[in-house]
Amino acid sequence: MAGKDMKSNRVYAKRVNISKSWYKFSRNPLSVLGLTVLIIIVLAAILAPYITPYPEHAGPYTNFPESGQPPNLRHFFGTDTVGRDVFSRVIFGYRFSLLLAVVVISLSVPLGIILGLIAGYTKRKWLEIGIMRITDIFLAVPPLVLALAITAMLSPKLLNQMMAISLMWWPWYCRLVYSVTSSLRNEYFVHDAELTGARKGFIMIRSILPNCVGPILTKITLDMGFVIILGASLSFIGLGVQPPKPGLGTMVADGAKRLPAEWWMTVFPALAIVLVILSFNLIGDGLRDMFAVEEI
Amino acid sequence: MHTKSPLLEIKDLSVSFKVFEGDLKVLNGVNLTINEGEKVGLVGETGCGKTTTIKSVLRVLPSPPARITGGEIFYRGRDILKLKKREIPSIRRGEISAIFQDPLTSLNPVFTIGYQLQEIIKHSLRQQGIEEVSKKELKSRAASLLKETGMPDPERILKSYPIQLSGGMRQRVCISEALRVTVKLLLADEPTTNLDVTIQDQILRRLDELVEKRGTSILFITHSLGVVRHLTHRVYIMYAGNIVETAHTKELFSNPLHPYTRGLLKTVPKLTGEGVSEGIQGRIPNYLNPPEGCRFHPRCGDKMEICINKKPPLFNQGENQMVACFLYGR
Amino acid sequence: MNRRSRVGKVRKIKVTVEGGWVFHTLTFSLYNIQEYSMLKYIGLRLIHSLFVLFGLSLLIFFIARVMPGDPARVALGPLATEEQVQKLREEIHLDKPFPVQYYYWLRSLLKGDLGRSLYTKRPIVKDLNEYLPATLELVLCSFIISLVFGQVTGVLAGYFRNSWFDGLSRLVSYIGVATPSFVMAIFLLLVFSHILGFIPAVGRISIILRPPPRVTGFIILDSLIAGQFKVALNGLKHIILPALSLAVAHIAQEGRVTRSSIVDNIQKDYVATHVVHGVPTRSVIFKYLLKPSLIPTVSIMGLDFAFIIANAFLVELVFMWPGFARYAVTVMLNKDLNAIVAVVLIVGATFAIVNLIVDIVVSFLDPRIRLQRRGG
Amino acid sequence: MKKQLLYFLVALLLIPSAFLTASEREEVMPEAENVVVINGMPVIIPDPGQAMDWYDTQVVYNLYSPLLYPTPDGKLRPHLAESWEAVGGMLDHWRFKLRRGVKFHDGSELTAEDVAFSMERLMSLGKGYSGIMGKVTARVIDNYTVDFVLAKPNAVFPATLTLFWPLNKDLVLENKKPGEYGQFGDYAQEWLNEHDAGSGPYMMVSHSPGERMEATRFKDYFLGWEEPKPTEAPIERLIFIMNWETATLMMLLKSQQLDVEMNGAFSRKTLKEIVDTPGIGLKRIWPEVWTVWINTTVPPTDDVHFRRALLYAYDYDAIMEQYSPYGAKEANIIASGLPGLVKVPPQPRRQNLAKAREELAKSKYDPDEVKVVFHYCAGLEAEEEVGLQLQADLAKLGIELEIAGPPWPQYSEECAKPETTPNLTMFMFPIVYPSPDSFMNFMYHPSNIGGIYSAHWYVNREYGMLIDKARETLDSDDRLGIYEQLQEKIASDALALYPYEIPMLFTTQDYMIGPKEVFPIVGPTESMYNWRIDLTKKP
């Protein structure tokens, strides 16, 4: 411990060495499995129109004579109550889930980081207090509850769902970055940079931000899973992707009406949700090993 | 001054740690004897296997990854390594005790000093057949123990948490814990390394007094030759899992034989925790693939051909001195 | 230090990833517990919570206000005439500007009145009184389940680390964490109720049983008080599946945190000290090891509790649990403005109180937090 | 030691699972014989002054008695009132003679005082079905005679009184709370949520809204309980539960924990499962007209030719065939079971693509350039099916149909304004009171346009005049004539697509006998007075 402290007070974040990082990551075979599964899922979702057996089933389509078929060779996951192929719909469902996760993360993370850096770095107390008190308000209730309230008050659409969840998500990052920033605020390397006359933005981005990269990346990976859960939960209530577009949560809710006789309508979409979240979590574990995220 | 009957006898103890890359052969046939009432020092660089040795004696080696691959440890004629699990606590409660290196971490942070101390006293008393002890009795015993170690205001200390005490005070608590009853053998693992020098001195004196008073044998583990010189009768020098030399303290300091010991003595009194800086070149070897033969040979100024291939046994040199070096025998 | 103290100090930031779960243990508190007497500390925290809840109500009110839609029309249904709708609009001040609406709401709140629900057409206080106990019963039950099972598996997995049990618990934890509670609910329902037919699927007690007279609102407790053991047992059976589906993820989570904390602590010198000084193994594990290991587990409990409440929103729907969470979802879907504000505030208040309790409990468990001198 | 501990703790973990194996069945044995469990909707408001949804009406028909009762063929018969007349032939002044000896649940007798008070209460509250009746003033003539004076002449007024259930005045006033209605306080609105003040065949025992309502048989019900056959028994105890999860309901039905299910929103698959399951079956109750409103104010459906093209393009038989085993048949502008129904020729009832193309050619829109939006209520699969079918059919004309199913609150709100109402919106309409007016007035009268009952937004003064004229016509045959004329006009304006009409389907256990009478309107059929239990079949 003593030696580590003595070495320097400079940036702790190491330069990212890709092959070394990969080595650390790949030491956990489960993480590699998770990454593989995720890559397959993402590719399948992107290429859905080309690889699913019945791409037209992802939209409005009926074929009553074919409805309610148990899983078979033509329909791997069976068909639903109006005769649509559940497998094709699950793959298309991934599209909406992943899209949701990506949009939410790419909206909320930059916002959270910027506000967190500002709040942590600024010398204006009112700004710091203001930003942090606002995050308090958003963090005062579980994200699902507030997202549910907001989506319900807006009309139920994927877009609104994205907005509501993003609104719930930035405070986590804001607080994370804020706490790192404010703890580094008075470190020597920050003072050094200030003395050399670097601009504030430069200091925040070049000196402080690299220290947050590890936890942020790990958190993003795991949050992807969380956001997908949240999205599925909302669409389970009927506040997500609107039918006849396939949302995984909606499919679970619709299929649940036909339990237990036609179990495949529920079980496969449900397993699909579990699978994608599981793979994100496994990757998150690998990233943790990679960045060795410990107490900051 | 002290009887010659051995209290603890370690014979050819070998311990290895299994890690992902292979086996770390940390102890490589350690031989060590402590007689009743004797004060013995065990000196070596950081990482040479001192702590592993006493952990083996106490049977607290984390296993896995550690594995005892050979040897015996006789305590009053019984092999500790062959004891059944349920027989061990009786030895721990009344026979052998220990003080660890870091007083900061060896006290449980979430219980009061009094609670921890009293529970330990209670179990040790039970071992001696004293079943029911009143709380008051326990408390006064604890307080008097603390007082013995020179602690001011023991009543208050008993109610405190470790975090509220300074390092020196904590180490006094550790000593109280270790000497709660009259034990036969005390293993003290660098008890003062993390304290500042003035306090080190106070505590060592106090510890010495207590041990003398009780007639307890003590094994001092340290990397400080200064401490050894003042407090022990006999010294073992350890290098990379081997005992390289043993002698009466005075003889050792006047006539060091092993090249390592000689190098070690040259560094006195500037010894720090950062390895041997002046006397000996190089670092302690990698335990994964330790050098064949004498483990010291890569750093040795006097190395011979035989040293590379053959592990030297302990050669008797005079009455009380033994050395593991081919310079002194074949 | 001085600069920060006005703003609040980040006591501990920890982003731990364990068994696929990220713990946002961003225990941020405005006030350092060691700076104040306990009473003063509680007081300050409560005031802070009040401020947050005030902001929250403003936020919800604002969002509800800028959203399109006419709650009065939704409430009265399709057969209502325009006059009926207009009358209701005036009654609930929907025709007034936002600040005036908020003022009216705040004024009646100070009188302990949360307004009327447009959906149930009753005072919201009455609704809450009716539905809240059912949810609390469920949440507490699953909280206890997750606590007990999480601790036991965590301690076992930590103590027997790298054994088959540890591997099994890791596997279960991955799956538990990756399964949303509503999916878990459906799976449990499918297996235990539909396929095996073991456990009743819906409601708090069987349909034809009459609920016991209300004392606490917790059916199991109430029926025990009334001496109706059959009803109590029936209630217990009904609560198992929903409570379990809420608990599984948290069993997994708490199990992993406890495990890693045990593994952390078991290598600490003080454990060896206890062992070497002859303290029996049982005491070492269940006293000296467990107490410090509990600290991280307890400190994530507030968040756990919040997540259980949030997940109850879906699980109650699946199991038709006539509780607060199902009520909350229904009023949200029905744009019942007053009720939405009320349910969000109730969740926020519960969360704040639970967090406060957790912080106090942690400070008692961990003298390092309680006794550390400032600036250390 | 270590191993033992491990095994012990693992065993400890497994103990709770012993719970899972205990059987449910023995515990559910009824405490009293003849319990009927009925499924309803989330929150029931069992107050005649506030009841509005059909779920409320179903419950109210059990707890209260209406002034007049419908007949199975859609006419009126005496109930609390023995006879009624328009005073001096004036359609705005009606006199009702009350039946003597009718007892409320507390044993007191129903008088004109109670009836008049109940009407005043309904009017003052301005909730529930008050809108249907218009402005009414009540006057007590003597103990058993009451006069109602209307603001506008209304020949249909007696029919709307099937939705008027007198309350016990003394009981209501005893239980009022302070409120905005002066001396009447809150008119006991709160109290009546959890109690009843009625004279119906059942008395409320307990009600926790959103959860459960329980009622027991009222032995002094004024129509009397006929001596049951030895193998039959009247229903002693009613328990209404609120649950709408299909899978759960099916499980409750199959395990005989649920005797009557009258929520009725099952999908075709589930219906088939019910028919195939021994021990339970379907009962056909009041008819519902499945209606797809066409918004006439937004493009492209503001063009009558375009609308007609839609009507000709839809393949009526495709879905109707699927439902014909359950009683589906061709739908009309008003529900069957009402007098005065005409099968109007202009309304298309078969797919005719040639005609559809012809109409499309006449319209001002190019099919390639327009998009039609279809909304249905989330979760109603049968409605979605219609949309999907229509989508496939319109595709043949090159018209794109967009389908979405928003949840009910959003859906009904969309329909509150013409510009937010989608081109096509789908609903099911039952008959509320036994008169064609039940369909006409709320769907086509210019003063009522808007909302789900008239999401076509078509304002036609002539419709209004005809509806008013019918209301002013005393002679019922003349009145029906006017309605027939009206239906023809409506059909030619192509305001709605009617996929089919299907009776409301209740799922019942085979040991339920009933309903003795099937009424075309919502409510009376569900009065459990109308049902019995077959003791030979009940296990």
Describe the structure.
The complex is a heterotetramer of chains A (296), B (330), C (376) and D (539). With 296 residues, chain A is an all-alpha fold. Chain A has helices at 2-7, 18-26, 29-46, 48-51, 86-121, 125-138, 143-153, 158-184, 188-195, 200-208, 213-237, 248-256, 264-291. Chain B starts with 5 loop residues before the first strand and ends in a 7-residue tail after the last strand. Chain B is of the alpha/beta class and 330 residues long. The relative contact order of chain B is 0.14. Chain B has an 8-stranded mixed β-sheet with strand order 6-7-8-3-9-10-12-11, sandwiched between helices. The mean pLDDT of chain B is 79. By secondary structure, chain C is mainly α. Chain C folds into 2 domains: 2-35, no CATH class; 124-371, MetI-like fold (Orthogonal Bundle). Chain D has 3 domains: 2-62 and 200-279 and 510-534, D-Maltodextrin-Binding Protein, domain 2; 65-173, Dipeptide-binding Protein, Domain 1 (Dipeptide-binding Protein, domain 1), CATH 3.90.76.10; 287-501, Dipeptide-binding Protein, domain 3, CATH 3.10.105.10. In chain D, the strands form 4 sheets. In chain D, strands 1, 8, 9, 11, 12, 13, 14, 15, 16, 17 and 18 form an 11-stranded mixed β-sheet that branches. Chain D has a 4-stranded antiparallel β-sheet with strand order 4-5-7-6, with helices on one face. In chain D, strands 10-20-19 form a 3-stranded antiparallel β-sheet, with no helix packed on it. Chain D is globular and about 70 Å long. Classes of the chains: A mainly alpha (296), B alpha/beta (330), C mainly alpha (376), D alpha+beta (539). Chains in contact: A-C, A-D, B-C, C-D. Chains A and C meet through α6, α7, α8, α11 and α12 of A and β1, β2, α2, α7 and α8 of C.
- Report on the biggest sheet of chain B: 8 strands, mixed
Mean pLDDT of chain D: 85
Task: Enumerate how many helices of chain B there are, as a single number.
Answer: 11
Spans of chain B of 5+ residues with little confidence (pLDDT < 50)? none
Secondary-structure element sequence of chain B? Answer: EEEHEEHEHHHHEHEHEEHHHEE
CATH superfamily of the largest domain in chain B: P-loop containing nucleotide triphosphate hydrolases
Straight-line distance between termini of chain B: 34 Å
What pair of chains forms the biggest interface?
A: A-C, 68 and 67 residues
N-to-C span of chain D: 55 Å
CATH architecture of the largest domain in chain B: 3-Layer(aba) Sandwich
Helical region count of chain D?
18
Reading side by side through the largest sheet of chain B, how are the strands ordered?
6-7-8-3-9-10-12-11
What is the CATH superfamily classification of the largest domain in chain D?
A: Dipeptide-binding Protein, Domain 3
State the low-pLDDT regions of chain D, or none: 18-31
Please tally the β strands of chain B and state the result.
12
Tally of strands of chain D: 20
**How would the global form of chain B be characterised?**
globular
Class of the largest domain in chain D, according to the CATH hierarchy? Answer: Alpha Beta
Rg result of chain D: 26 Å
The CATH topology of the largest domain in chain D is: Dipeptide-binding Protein, domain 3
